[in-house]
Amino acid sequence: MIDKNILRKKYRNVRSNIRNKSQKEENIRKKVIDYIKRNNAKIIGIYASFKDEVDTFLLIQELNNIGINTVLPR
Description:
The chain is mainly alpha-helical. The protein has helices at residues 4-16, 21-38, 57-65, and strands at 43-45, 69-71. Strands 1-2 form a two-stranded parallel ribbon. Strand 1 (43-45), helix 3 and strand 2 (69-71) form a beta-alpha-beta unit. The longest helix has 18 residues, at 21-38. The N and C termini lie far apart (31 Å).
């Protein structure tokens, strides 16, 4: 069985070495927004990004600007 801490460290390292991260995040935002619009979603559950995770704050702002409510875990 693989240790979770080892996996976390491995993928934290992978995320920190991503090239063109801002462009990739923009592509993710576009795909998410397109998906949400196609499915007529009104409320979306999303997480608040932390450290080197995909930045969700701009996505949340864009969703709110087009009338999609976002909810985050407490």
